[in-house]
Design brief:
The protein is an all-alpha fold and 298 residues long. It is 74% helix and 0% strand. α4 packs parallel to α7, α10 packs antiparallel against α11 and α11 runs antiparallel to α12.
Amino acid sequence: MHRPIVVAFAVLASGCSLERVLLDGQLAATRKASTSFDTLEDLEVAKIGAGSSLVQLEGMHVLAPDQKDALFLLLQGYAGFTSAFVEDEWEQAYDRGDDDAEAFHAERAKKNYDRAIGYGTELLEQTAPGFVAAQKNRDTIKGYLQGIGRDDAETVLWLGIAWMGRGAVAAERAEIVAELFIGEALLERANELDDSMAYGLGLAALGAYHARSPDAELKESAALFDRSFAKTQRKALTPLLLRAQNLACVSHDEKGYRALLEEVLAAPDFPAQRLENTIAKRKAQRYLGAPRLKRCAF
C-alpha cells in the first residue's frame, strides 16, 4: 500500500480531519521558525509583521482552540509585541508629558498583557490543570508550579513576563499589584527549570521585580542581573537596559545608570538577538534624555 493512502487511513481512523492535521503541522513549523524574527533590524518591518502574525494566529486559534503551539505563540506574541512596541509608545508619551496618550497606551498594554495571560492560562490548564485554582497565595502557587516540568518551561517563562509586564503598566490598580506574587512565582520556576531561556530574560525580569522600589530586595536583584549577563557575556542588551531602568534608577546610581546605557549603545551586533538589541539601543538613547533622568531623580 502506498504511504499517502496509509496516512489517509490513519487520519480517518483517528477521527482527525485533514484540515486539522495540516493546521497542526503549520503551527508546529511556525513555532520552530519563529526565532528567525529575532534577526530582524528594521523596527517598522518587525512591528507590522508581528501585528499581522498575531491576527493570523487568532484565526488559527478559532479553528483549533486547543492547539498548543497556537496558544504558546499567542502568549509569546502578545507579551513580546506589547513589551517591544506598545510600552515604547507609552514611555514616549510619558516623556513628552502627554497625559492622555500615556493613559491610552498604558490601557492598550494592559489589555494586550491580559490577552497574553489568558492564552498562557489556557495552555497551562491543558497541560497541568489547576493553575487558576492554585492562585490563592504564595504557598499554593509555588506548590502547583513544582509539578511543572521542563516541557512547559517556556510557557511558564512567557506567562511570568506577561504577568510582570501587566503589573508595570497598571501599577495604580491594587487588584493587579496584589497578584504580582503569581508572576514572581512563575519567573522563579522558569529560572529553576532553565535560566538560559530567551538569553537569560527570565533572570533579568525577576531582577527588575526585586528592584521595584528603593526598599525592595536590591541585593537579590543585582545577583539576578549578574547571572543574566553571564548567559550571553553581556551580548543580549535587554538585561542591561532593565538593570539601568530599574536597579540603577531606584538605588540612585547615576554613574552605573549612564554606564549601562552607554554600553548598550556601543554594543556590537549580536545576530541572534538583533531585534531585541535594536529595541534596547533605541530605548537606551531615550533613557539618557532629561525626562528619564528626572524620573530617576538624577
